[in-house]
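Annotators were shown the component list below and the corresponding predicted structure, then asked to write short factual statements about the assembly.
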Amino acid sequence: MHSAEELQQLFNNELKKLSFSRQPNNLYDPFKYMLDLGGKRMRPVMLLMACEMFGADGTKAISQAIALELFHNFTLIHDDIMDRAPLRRGKPSVHQKYGSATAILSGDAMLIYAYQYLIKTSFSPIEKLVSVFNDCAISICEGQQMDMNFEKGDTVSVEQYFEMIDLKTATLLAASMRVGAMIGGASEQDAEHTEHFGKNLGVAFQLKDDWLDAFGEAGKTGKQRGGDIIQNKKTFLLLEALRRADDDTKTELNQYFMSSGNDPEKKVGRVLEIFNSLQLDLVTRQAIEEYFSKALLSLQKIEVGQELKLPLKNLIEIMMQRDH
Amino acid sequence: MHSAEELQQLFNNELKKLSFSRQPNNLYDPFKYMLDLGGKRMRPVMLLMACEMFGADGTKAISQAIALELFHNFTLIHDDIMDRAPLRRGKPSVHQKYGSATAILSGDAMLIYAYQYLIKTSFSPIEKLVSVFNDCAISICEGQQMDMNFEKGDTVSVEQYFEMIDLKTATLLAASMRVGAMIGGASEQDAEHTEHFGKNLGVAFQLKDDWLDAFGEAGKTGKQRGGDIIQNKKTFLLLEALRRADDDTKTELNQYFMSSGNDPEKKVGRVLEIFNSLQLDLVTRQAIEEYFSKALLSLQKIEVGQELKLPLKNLIEIMMQRDH
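Structure shown to annotators:
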């Protein structure tokens, strides 16, 4: 059994070994560029940990970890085009650097390579593995379309928001965990518990992201406080605020979030004031705690020894305490 | 054993039955729109015929025929965005109708659904089937990038052109035929012959398209004669003309194809004059014949009775004689 750090090292080494050196060069340049931008590699590492939780060696699932990471990067490349995002991790996004046409096509190729790595396994029946991946991939497309619809529509409920992050964000961690469990030799029931664990954890992480934007320590997050507020993003905080606010405050919030001509500093200041007055710090932390507890409950149900669950448990506790 | 018409009917019925009725609607609207635009469904029908050539019932491969047709439509949606094409089969292209963001995402979802249908089979080992599909899909991305590079670069050789259409166009027919053969129960060697048959036929079809643009009867093709010339497309005819022309004619051709300000009618007239003077009608027909013969030779090598090859043979002879 490996530690999280060892698995991360293992994964990074494997990722570095990939050479997309086929022709034409300019189709594959964005692969290297995108993968070199880094990231926490949270999903692939947790996939490997899920595999080891069932007593198998994580290396057995390394190709699937690569597959999920390629898939994740494919979604980032295409999402950045759709969202017209000029930056990704502080550097020019792929379409900004290579043009939209190549960004679309490189993303497509990356998705296909994800399938290529996914099927590199002795797991049988392999169509079960591909189905988990397909269902997840389709959910993510649906979640992204829903997210884009939210940007245009005016009223979004908290329930719709949860449905969206469930599809767009939590599904990928859920599928990663399930794939790891399957390759690790989990029973159907344990694979399902592992998937639910990933799903609830994914929601908790997204809520934490939303919380950090408003209540995190700006010095530590490395991001501008209130970035989501400036970008008029429909986060849990905003939707919950709209649900809780009286009519006057609701009108004020709607005015702030419907126009882009506001002084950003003033806007962030006032919106945070409203968030605070509605006790959203506490409300959000409670929601995070709720999903985190659900995740832990699913983890408990998995029928393997406590010591096999420990590495995952430690990792997620560190991740939940992160202040950036 | 079914006739080509019966298989086409069978396929169209199956395609009509697909209902992509999941939420959000606007992710799936382009599916219906695109599939309703029609098309000859040449690849899926030939996939079913390849399956029946080996004695199996075509219905056995119907999901894979759907998969290949979905994949083909995914490439059309994304290619139209990349090429900024406003029209597809005389109607607004998907990105023109639904916007680029949804066109990118619907295309992605369609590619994922292609995998979903691909794995609906009792064929084993299924990873072999997925590998054929993956290799083909990656080739098509490479071919499309090469094609885009051609649009920008100035000198393209006839050899590079063949490499490009091999990747971008012929591979899909080759893979369709191979998948059909595999599911039909072909030996490895016969599957390979069937694939080569499809590959060479695919090249012949593309050359025929190039030829029709310049020498087809405009009344029958339903397209404007010289459409490729007006769009400055690098076709076999142009590249072969540049290879055969004397320096003065080469300069003239390059001038015509490097600027967009020419009177289209005058341009087409003069370029066709040059094509004629270089005997490109004959040269292209010879090239088509060459690839068609290679295809027939591969068909001959397949170790099944002549009567099983007949439907495919008849179909491709009709297709080669088409004047539109």
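Statements collected:
1. The longest strand of chain A covers residues 87-88.
2. The beta strands of chain A are 87-88, 91-92.
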